Amino acid sequence: MSTFADHTRSIRRAAVSLFLAAAAYESIARSGVFPPSLLPSLVAVAGALVDGVLDGSLPAHALATLYRVLMGVGLAIAFGLPLGILMGRFRPVESFFLPLASALMPIPSLAWVPVFILWLGLGNATAIGIVLYAALFPLLLNAWSGVRAVDPLWLRAGSAMGADERALFWKVILPGAFPFVIAGLRQAFLRAWIAVVGAEMLAASDWGLGWIIFDAKEFLRADVMLASLAVIGMIGFAFERLIFGSLERVTVLRWGMVRTAKR
Amino acid sequence: MPHIEVHDVSLIYDTPAGRVVGVEHSSFDIEQSEFVCLVGPSGCGKSTLLNIIAGFLVPTAGEIRIGGKAITGHGMDRGIVFQDFAQLFPWRTARGNVAFGLEMKGVPAPERERIALEHLRLVKLEKFANAYPHHLSGGMQQRVAIARALAYNPSVLLMDEPFAALDALTRDDMQKLLADVWRETRKTVVYVTHNVAEAVYLADRVLVMTPHPGTVRCQVPIRLERPRDPLSAEFIEHQKELLRHLGGQAAAS
Question: Of A76, A151, B213, B252, which residue is 20 to 30 A from B44 by alpha carbon distance?
Answer without folding.
Answer: A151
